[in-house]
Design brief:
By secondary structure, this protein is α+β, with helices and mostly antiparallel strands. 37% of the residues are buried.
């Protein structure tokens, strides 16, 4: 027998909103008068909707999955969120059938409007033999104040088993939920197929749980049972890490392994073996390396040359258009590093493995590491699914020190990583097999941004000039990738919009061009033209923003409270230099006092202002050293950025008496 775990499907179903036990539509639950009249929920202030009840039952003895939901709509946003109910499933596998779709809408006055339509099907994903579909339906007459009820079943063939993944924490507050799982009593005869294509006989049923305080899975003769209440929603806050990776959940597995630790060790071994097969420094690879490096090169010089050569290979994850012949070659099975080099094209992980193969051929100790993308998920070792891991990076020992490389990220600089791959757990190769390890974070010096504005200001406030922004590291990689996924014209518009959002009101910026878009060895520069008006003009004075680039920026973290930790993505140094030349008759009357705002060991801000004769100068520096902050650290982080925002709103006072006098005709006797 075969059990094909459908992790993506289980995740989608677990995130569906889903009361009382299933029976017929005549046995729907009866909402209380208080529930009908609810316009807000004291348990979840400002919530757009809440789950009054959710039930999820899986019975692997009869191959059925049942879901029931009772949802209260509290706002227009909640109405939009539940406008369509989606039921994802994998088509063409194990006889999956979605049936018994029922629902009704209960209006605030108690009127019941039954669902009489039929769901329609929509394709979500099709890759190779995998095809994920969903059935979609909409309940009738949904309005703010309505209570929605719906239920459905998913059935499987007799030979197919689906241990559930209960994602207890959802996008909206859950008042009460019930989960039940009846495992098959024949699971010792099941064979599973893992992410690497290996078939293994199941030995036991494992489960992982992370639940609210006081909640616990009950195991009995009738299976596994869980009742939870008052489950908070997953809060969507700025700079929240992918907390969904560690939301409240219970995950079941028919497993060939005795523990999660054994799972990661065995799966890591399979992955490492595949890497080594692919990255074998074959004769063809050695011949290629011999043409790239010179006998007298140091290890560092060899590696730089190899990296430059690998970066010339077409990365199909970023190429927009391929020929039919290229696409056919891309589908070739059992590829090796030699194939990638010969064809001069491959996907991100194949190019990383090519780099490892060439480094090994040059006599260097090179290992692979596979990680998640930090903006999407964090590796949860309790979730026994290798497909959490997606992106491979390289680790090469040079002069006794390990260095990390990201050749699979097109235009990533030598010796740097895309921020998505930093400060993350993953699985890496070692001399003794594989192990769970953490990728180190970047240094703030690896990400530099210099914004220089050379401007002139007339007596009536008209401004013109030019901006040059020089960047490397993460910001340079971001815009180079943007061009690859869109085009240069779209990147120009997007960057222009980003700069425009911060400059003073009345100022217009126009993107001219980028320099160095395709050269990862150089800094990336953006050139913009400035026009418009700036400041407030009175009879004798002109008031202009002291901080040109941040004059209209919204300070970070306006909310006083926060529920989640923070991920500021990457450390950096951002430096501004503004040189404002004043028209004849204008002079600097006063400037703000220089300021330093410290956040010890985390960040620092410095601002210096100067005015002499007919010019004004400002220098601003913001350095962020730490990127991950716990909820308890939020007040200090917020205080720092609030002070920075206040300082950036300071003004410079210009004297225009002489200019005004020059513009006024002399008076006197004629």
């Amino acid at each position: 027998m075969v059990s094909a775990r459908r992790s993506a499907l289980s995740l989608c179903l677990g995130l569906l909103a889903c009361a009382p036990l299933f029976a017929s539509s005549s046995e729907w639950s009866q909402p209380t008068p208080e529930q009908l009249k609810m316009t807000s929920d004291p348990a979840a202030p400002n919530a757009a909707a809440v789950y009054l009840y959710y039930e999820d039952i899986v019975d692997d003895k009869v191959h059925f999955h049942k879901v029931y939901a009772e949802v209260k709509i509290l706002t227009e946003k909640g109405k939009d969120a539940f406008n369509e109910i989606e039921i994802p499933y994998e088509a063409g596998e194990a006889g999956v059938d979605v049936g018994q779709v029922q629902g009704r809408t209960i209006e605030p006055d108690g009127t019941v409007v039954p669902f009489t339509g039929k769901p329609y099907q929509k394709e979500l994903l099709k890759t190779g033999t995998e095809k994920v579909m969903e059935k979609v339906f909409s309940l009738p007459d949904v309005r703010v104040g309505s209570i929605l009820e719906y239920q459905f079943t998913i059935s499987y063939d007799a030979y197919y088993f689906e241990p559930p993944s209960w994602f207890v924490q959802k996008d909206y507050y859950v008042h009460e939920a019930h989960y039940h799982f009846v495992p098959t009593d024949t699971h010792m005869n099941i064979v599973t197929t893992d992410a690497h294509g290996h078939e293994n006989s199941v030995h036991q049923l494992l489960y992982y749980q992370f639940l609210p305080q006081g909640a616990q899975v009950r195991e009995g003769l009738d299976g596994f049972d869980l009742v939870v209440s008052d489950v908070p929603s997953l809060e969507d806050e700025p700079y929240t890490p992918p907390i969904g990776s560690f939301s409240y959940r219970v995950l079941f597995y028919y497993s060939p392994y005795a523990s999660g630790q054994e799972f990661w060790k065995a799966e890591g071994k399979y992955w490492s073996k595949d890497v080594n097969r692919f990255a074998e420094p074959s004769g063809k690879i050695k011949e290629a390396v011999a043409q790239i490096v010179s006998p007298g090169d140091t290890d560092e010089q060899k590696l730089e040359k190899i990296y430059a050569a690998v970066m010339t290979v077409d990365n199909t994850d970023f190429t927009r258009e391929h020929t039919q012949q290229e696409n056919k070659a891309e589908g070739q099975k059992d590829k090796t590093a030699a194939d990638i080099w010969a064809n001069k094209r491959g996907d991100s992980n194949e190019i990383t493995r090519l780099f490892i193969a060439m480094a090994r051929a040059a006599g260097l100790n090179a290992d692979a590491m596979i990680v998640t993308e930090r903006n999407h998920r964090i590796l949860n070792q309790g979730y026994l699914d290798w497909e959490q891991l997606s992106d491979e990076i390289a680790i090469v020992k040079v002069d006794g020190r390990e260095q990390y490389f990201d050749p699979g990220e097109r235009y990533c600089e030598y010796g740097k990583l895309d921020w998505l791959h930093t400060q993350m757990l993953g699985i890496r190769q070692t001399d003794n097999g594989t192990e769970v390890a953490e990728v180190p974070g970047a240094n703030y010096k690896d990400n530099l941004i210099l914004r220089v504005a050379n401007l002139t200001l007339s007596a009536n406030g008209a401004v013109q000039g030019q901006i040059r922004v020089t960047m490397n590291g993460t910001q340079a990689l971001r815009w180079r990738h943007y061009v690859l996924s869109h085009d240069e014209e779209a990147a120009n518009r997007a960057y222009e919009k980003e700069i425009q959002a911060g400059v003073p009101a009345g100022v217009q910026v126009k993107m001219s061009h980028f320099l160095g878009l395709t050269d990862y060895t150089s800094n990336l520069m953006a050139v913009l033209e400035v026009s418009g008006s700036m400041g407030t003009v009175t009879g004798k004075r002109v008031f202009v923003p002291a901080s040109f680039f941040e004059a209209s920026a919204t300070p970070l973290f306006a909310a006083q409270q926060r529920e989640n930790p923070l991920d500021m993505h990457y450390p950096y140094i951002a430096r501004d230099e503004v040189d404002l030349t004043l028209a004849p008759g204008l002079s600097v009357e006063s400037v703000p006092a220089n300021a330093t705002i410290p956040y010890p060991q985390m960040a620092e801000y410095q601002a210096a202002y100067g005015g002499k004769g007919g010019s004004y100068k400002q220098e601003r520096l913001l350095a962020l050293g730490n990127t991950i902050y716990q909820k308890s650290e939020y007040p200090q982080l917020r205080d720092f950025f609030q002070k920075v925002g206040a300082q950036d709103q300071q003004q410079v006072v210009l004297d225009r008496v002489a200019a005004a006098a020059a513009a006024t005709p002399a008076s006197g006797p004629k």
